[in-house]
Design brief:
- This protein is an alpha/beta fold.
- The chain has a nine-stranded mixed β-sheet.
- It is elongated, with a radius of gyration of 19 Å.
- It starts with a strand and ends with a helix.
- 33% of the residues are buried.
- Bound molecules: adenosine monophosphate.
- Adenosine monophosphate binds next to β5, β8 and α7.
Length: 213
Amino acid sequence: MTDITIALSKGRIFDDTAPLLKAAGIEALEDPESSRKLILATNQPNVRLVIVRASDVPTYVQYGAADMGIAGKDVLIEHGGAELYQPLDLNIARCKMMVAVPDGFDYESAVQQGARLRVATKYLQTAREHFADKGVHVDLIKLYGSMELAPLVGLADAIVDLVSTGNTLKANHLRAVEEIMQISSRLIINQAALKLKQPIIQPILDAFTDAVQ
Ligand code: AMP
């Protein structure tokens, strides 16, 4: 029987994907939060899950190490999406990509006056495009996490980050000044796998599509 490997990240995406997998008759035999295993068996002998960093999911699927995966739009934009079929917005892990600045910083004036802003972010591609479209000059500083700290210690004037409830911004005396885009997670499929393993992949895709609607 053909085997299928699905790449997922722990946490929000795994939790929100579990009901969709269940709709496709797939259930993990272990919880990635408590297990240290990176390959999880499921109740379907030919379906396994691999647990990877969210930003690595597109890479595993691109190279066919996983046949399919779930990745946020934020991650897909940074990856570039090469060789990935993206058939379905799962509407999970929803949030917004925003520009945020410290409470006292007059962003609107700085932008109007043509100031050169320093912007810290994990999302270089998204930030570069956004400010280029606006015609705002920026120096981008790549960070891997805790972007909210950067303006507080003088590393940057602004950040580009994901915002869900807004609590993290508030707790760090930052305010969102621009929405760049709505973010949600998408199903991604390796294009070769879609052709070669269609009899297994198509029913999963159909079950996901029904469950999302
Ligand atoms: P919140 O305080 O609810 O606005 O969440 C903001 C923090 O959670 C930021 O550090 C974000 O990077 C992260 N975050 C929020 N939503 C998501 C998401 N859908 N996927 C990944 N990270 C997220």
